[in-house]
Amino acid sequence: MEAARTSWGATGVLFAAVGLVIASGFFRPPEVAADARGEVPAASAVLLAVAPRSDPAEAGRRALRDRLSRNPRDEEAATALAERCIMQARKTRDPRWLGQAQAALGPFWSDADPSAEVLLSRATIRQSLHAFPEALTDLDRATRLRADPQIELTRATVLAILGRFEEACEACTKVSARLPVVGAGCTAQIEAATGSARPAVSRLDAVLAGAGAATEEIPWLLSLRAEAHLRLGDRGAARSDLLRALAGDPQDAYSRILLQDTHIDEANEQSLAAAIALTIGHENDDAVMLRGAIAAKRAHHPQADVFARELREKQQAARDRGDTVHRREEALFALHVDGDAVKALPLAEANFGVQKEPADVRLLLEAAIAAHEPLRGKPAADFARKTKLEDPVIAALLPQVPQ
Predict the structure, then answer these.
(1) What does the alpha-carbon distance between residue 283 and residue 320 come to, in Å, rounded to a whole number?
(2) What pTM does this model have?
């Protein structure tokens, strides 16, 4: 189911797959300011200061590109530009920005002995492309070069996606030593996915009630608490937190999608209409539009065919490019929009082979049961039982899968 920093600059880094695989259960971080560690490149403040007010972010990127055109081996500029492109990918959910991030790191990408900054940048990009083992290798190398909460937070993300929760908790503990609020959120995410959702809610209650959280961290913390509430079956509390998160950050795609999922699961006319309404104005985000398509089909809404047609075209374009990153979304579309469980099941299996978040567990179980091949859902069922995953929907599915 999208963290603390290196010496990159003032815009923060991702704690997940740059929003390309967002769904319920998706691990992601806040955007922690660089001054939490007191390490901002000397050039960063200057670049932001001279940028035109109309688009300071683009001005900053342009200035960094100019620096790289003069000196392609300027590592500080390369990693700063890569970070800004990654952040733009998260905000726009346009994967082309990841290509720009990788291009910025081009002179350093294949270095035999890259710096911690390059390793973290490369790991974040690899993570976004679902190259999780390669990303983890980079992060492990980076930890040997420098103790850094950003590295540990990103490691926690990748380890959690792979289902290696004990190691992820250890990484969260290291984050807590430097950044207590972020570390608490990191730990709560793991608790919510491993049978301790109620302690996770209590932990997040305390953090949100205290004065330690920065403004930009509050929507993130609220979305984490919403997930924990969902693990406990309290959709009302989850919906309240997600609405507050979106009020604090209307561009928070993660909270928007999680709120859509919550409405879809409620499955009444009003909630389906709310899920569709959350799509309007965000149709360029495929994950948001997918939820809109699912809700529209179930509500017999006239927009259902429009959403479905556009998503089919985008999926075909991705297949033509050889893109296998979006198996979760393809499986969800096949299962809940096309109603084709036979097509959805191998996609869900392939997706579960790569990532094991609660959304992936649920997807494989649903696809296997709908395809009348419940035994093929056993890997997800075994994983859910082993990790003590709490979720009322998953709990209802488990008895239908042989042990």
Answers:
(1) 22
(2) 0.85
